[in-house]
Structures are given as C-alpha cells and as structure tokens.
C-alpha cells in the first residue's frame, strides 16, 4: 500500500530548481530537470543526515548539483549519484513521483 502526498505547485517549480518537502517524519528533495519532476529522500548516504533543511539552499552555488551542507557532497539531480565528497559514487535514494490529473504526487510505502 502506497501513501500518496501532493507536491504543491510542482508544475510551477522552475527548471533546475529544487525544494524541500516534509511528509510526516520523512523529508524529500524535489527538483525539476529537463521538464521532469524528480524526488529523492533528503538523506545523505555519508552519515545519514539530512542534506539540507528549509533555511538552506538545496543546490550548490552554481545551481547544478544537490548539495549536502554537512561535508559538501554534491549529487547529480538527474540520477542522485554523488560526484564529489566523502560518499563519492554512492546514491541518494530516489522517490517515486506519480502524476494524476495534472498534479504531482510523492508515492512511498
Ligand atoms: S553527511 Fe553529507 S557529506 Fe557528510
């Protein structure tokens, strides 16, 4: 059984931007890349800490990578792989995004 949670204004999320979404005790990073909405658990594979929180920017200074604000790991927003940092080569856990009647939803068990 999946939980379904609306991602508010996902369709209006600017290309290449990312935001934090909190659902119950879970945190997700949601980004739009090449017109596609992608989501990852907001949990760094290095020390299992939240990469970022609402008061911090989610992306690096150039806006190209998802950034962990603890030790600076950078992750591709396309596939969640860590391209540099202490967990290089590991991945963010991808979350399932569904679209229903034009709205985007996070789907998780
Ligand atoms: S906890 Fe993310 S880089 Fe260390």
Automatic annotation (TrEMBL):
Q: Which UniProt keywords apply?
A: 2Fe-2S, Iron, Iron-sulfur, Metal-binding
- What InterPro entries does the entry give? Rieske_2Fe-2S (IPR017941), Rieske_2Fe-2S_sf (IPR036922)
Q: Which domain of life is it from?
A: Bacteria
Q: Which residues form the Rieske domain?
A: 5-106
| This protein's name | Rieske 2Fe-2S domain-containing protein
